Amino acid sequence: MARAPAITVEQMNEEARRRLLDGIEGKGAHLSFENAIAGFPDRLMNEKPPHVPYTFWHQLEHIRRAQEDMLSYIRNPEYVSPEWPRDFWPAPDETTDRQGWDRTVQRYLDHRRRYVDFLSDPSLNLLAPVAHMQNRSVLRSTLIIIDHNAYHLGEFVMGRQILGAWKSNLAG
């Protein structure tokens, strides 16, 4: 049996970069942010699904804040972590309107674009330990964001299903 040719660290880095970019943008096995929020009814922005302590808008704002925080953590050697959980979630009684919803969505998309631009830099070594990040890699931090976004977008869609505001393609 023939052995597969060895791959270089550079080739591994580029393959990892492609996979991370797909994950951040919600491609492949991940639900995209855009698909999760498509057609979302205004009347549910400030609703909490049963047994859930936060609203649909709270979830989107939390996703946005966490992604923005991780990008700051990765890029800024002077990074100071915001206070958990206060700075990562809106206040429990905080509400929004269409303008606030759209602002959250746009800020999320802007930060995601910055994240994609950052990851797309071929000189960025995704695997190298970063001193100001306690020697953790950009790869590790980006995987956390992909997991975090997927988790909360899954919750978001499940909440939509429970409240009858989602049509699944799986229903047949």
Structure in words:
- Strands 1-2 form a two-stranded antiparallel sheet.
- Helix 1 (9-24) packs antiparallel against helix 4 (98-120).
- It is mainly alpha-helical and 172 residues long.
- It is globular and about 55 Å long.
- The chain contains five helices and two strands, in the order H-H-H-H-E-E-H.
- The longest helix has 25 residues, at 138-162.
- The mean pLDDT is 93.
- It has a domain at 49-162.
Rg, nearest Å? 18 Å
Number of continuous helical runs: 5
Main sheet? 2 strands, antiparallel
**Could you tell me how far the N terminus lies from the C terminus, measured between alpha carbons in angstroms?**
44 Å
- What is the number of beta strands? 2
Overall 3D form: globular
Query: Structural class, judged by helices and strands?
Result: mainly alpha
Mean pLDDT: 93
* H/E element order: HHHHEEH
Instruction: Strand order, main sheet: write it out.
Output: 1-2
Helix content: 40-55%
Proportion of residues in β-strands: under 5%
Stretches with pLDDT under 50, minimum 5 residues? none
